[in-house]
Structure prediction request, 171 residues.
Amino acid sequence: MSGLVLLVGGARSGKSSLALRLAEEAGDPVVFVATGEARDGEMAERIARHRAERPASFETVEEPLALRAALEAAPPGSCVVVDCLSLWVANLLEAGAGGVEEEAGAAAAAAAARAGRTIAVTNEVGLGIVPATPLGRAYRDVLGRVNAIWAEAADEALLVVAGKVLRLGDA
Prediction:
């Protein structure tokens, strides 16, 4: 099974669990691209929980910045899970990378062009309060545009809320 599937939703909405289930159902070898880094104890615990939830057969690639390269390096027939675009965008912004939206477009195109299925997870951060800081507002805005870029490239976009799924379509 091929194609790009985007899972978007709030924190703890069930996106990652759904991504794992969809990857297992694909029946192909799975490459899990993890974009998070354990920079503090709380994040280390989150990463450990996520690792424990993944089947041992999944190959894990830890790549906080070079997402497109990780996608292009995945075996053609594999299913790739990217978890998550939200942290990837934060990592790029923190690294001072310019052209985040252009890189998002290139990575989304690489994901969509793969012979195998790609499942990308991302947070929707634009539905809540307006962040109090300029950096928070910039992150919210960039991630919103990145999510739209990936949704446009996707064969299927799903909104995940409280463990339930809503298929997103064109207006």
Remarks:
- Helices lie at 15-26, 41-53, 67-73, 85-94, 100-113, 134-153.
- Residues 69 and 107 are 8 Å apart (CA to CA).
- The mean pLDDT is 94.
- The chain has six helices and seven strands.
